[in-house]
Amino acid sequence: MGFHLRPASEDERETLEALIARSARGLSQADYTDAQTEAAIRHVFGVDSELVADGTYFVAEEDGVPIACGGWSRRKTLFGGDRYAARQSGLLDPATEPAKIRAFFVHPDHARKGVGRALLAHCEAEAKRHGFTRCEMMATLPGVKFYRAAGYADREAFLQPTPEGVVIPFLRMEKSL
Questions:
Q1: Is 148 domain-assigned?
Q2: Residues 18-54: pLDDT tens digits?
Q3: What is the pTM assigned to this prediction?
Q4: How far, in Å, CA of 78 to CA of 48, rounded?
Q5: Domain count, the chain
């Protein structure tokens, strides 16, 4: 493992936004059109500053360079960065509600090398440490196979319209910890 995980910081927002865009553009081609990818980058994807402030958003770094990011949340928002309008900041009840796995993006040059799996395992362990017994996410289509392999089950297809009329498909998935 040539990378290490650390909490994200607010001062690296620009770097993480660039990583997210690069990941989306590089890894979404088989599942989304260019219009869907660009609309997702503009309106849905991105850094969620609440996750960063909560200390639940992490960066995988290799030689001082971020190569992946992702996190988990104890808040109600299921997906979307700061630009996503339908956010809910309320806290979840770990006894009855699942933690949210959020905003996973891997640089295309580092995909399929165990970085995402290590990041996911770290987030699941942290959620479990905070009393959660389940996790859920709104998976992008490129991530569905990865999450299924990690034990997540399909729950519900979801179509997210954007202001310019582009519709982006997602899949809500869940796992018991």
A1: no
A2: 999 999 999 999 999 999 999 999 999 989 999 999 9
A3: 0.93
A4: 11
A5: 1
